[in-house]
Amino acid sequence: MGKVLAEKPELRTKAKEITPLINRIVGEVNTLSLSEQKRIVEENWPEALQREKVEEEKKLPPLPNADKYPKVVTRFSPNPDCVLHLGSARAIILCHEYARMYRGKFILRFEDTDPKLKKPVLEFYDRIREDLAWLGCIPDEEYIQSDRIPIYYGYAEKLLENGNAYVCACQPQAFREKILAKRPCPCRDLPSETHMERWRRMLDGEYGEGEAVVRIKTDLQHPNPAVRDWPALRVIDTERSPHPRVGSKYRVWPLYNFACGLDDHLMGVTHIIRGKEHLTNMVRQEYLYRHLGWKYPEAIHYGRLKIVGAYLSKSKIVQGVREGFYEGWDDPRLATFVALRKRGITPAAIKRLIIDVGPKTSDVVLSWENLYAYNRKTLDPEVDRYFFVSNPIQLTVHGVPKTFTARIRRHPEHLERGFREYTIKPTEKGEAFFWVSKNDLKNLATGRIIRLMELFNVRVEEVKAYAVEASFLSEAYEDAKRAEAPLIHWVSIGADMPCRVVMPDATTVEGIAEKACESLKPNDIAQFERFGFVRIEKTDGKILAYFAHK
RNA sequence: GCUCCGGUAGUAUAGCCCGGUCAAGUAUUCCGGCCUUUCGAGCCGGAGACGCGGGUUCAAAUCCCGCCCGGAGCACCA
Question: Of A339, A346, A385, A369, whose CA–CA distance to A532 is shortest?
Answer without folding.
Answer: A385
